[in-house]
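## retry 2 of 3
previous attempt timed out at serialization; input unchanged, resubmitting
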Amino acid sequence: MRSRLIILVLAAAAALALPAAAHAKLTVGISENSPGMFSHPLFPGLGAKHARVVMAYNVMTSGNHELARVTQYLNAARAARVTPLVTFEHATGDASICNKRRNFRRAVCRLPSQRSYRSNVRKFFAAFPWVRVVAPWNEVNHFTQPTSRNPKAAAKFTNTVAKLCRRCTIVAADMLDQADKICGIHNYSDVNRFRATGTKAIMRALGCRQYWLTETGGLFKFGSFWTKRTRKGCKNAAGCQLKATKYMFKLARRNRRIKRLYVYTYFGKVTPRFDAGLVDNRTGKARKAYREVKKRI
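## retry succeeded, writing output
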């Protein structure tokens, strides 16, 4: 039973240690990795004051373009007075190869030592001391993440971040005995199937004081997800995304313990298979879901 709970917990949620004060109103942020969001002409109109960004744990020492992206992103967020939730993950590179055992020893798939992780994160905080909301590892049980094969290491990463940044709000992976904290959930499946069963099941299993939907949103495109059978009343991709976005907020409002959500993503048409963007990256135009999010913020 305990192992099943661990799998459930690591599959979609992470504990979030916060001060005792609770938010009376749902806070809406944007989860987007491109720093171009802050300079896009439609972004100020959203009024978003919270953003989530994912980066390699070794961003400070990777020696590639990743550091330039992160630096630009965090500086732009600071200039716009947007609070970033920084989420670390695997080393720089294409993690899609990590679904094959033969690739586990490759740099992008390999679990870093605690010493290496500590050294890199310490350098990050030295460079960006204003960052105060951190997730030590992203989606720790995802098959492309090395933590999926070593959840104890993920828990130790959390302890490391807590020691390096004692004033930080921390999204932690080890939460079975931290039910008084705030937990984060990724609930794409429920939102885009217009249901709440998975979200409710996770909330019942965790029994946390508060919940944040840390990565959620309406799909514009995801392979062949939107078909005649699954559309259920929406005529096209934009209509289906809007319907799912409205349901996302409806689901959040149904439970008072859900206090925040990060809509994923700002830009659409960036990758060929997955698209949940509020803005078409090619035309620069807002989609219907953008206007719905703007209303809620």
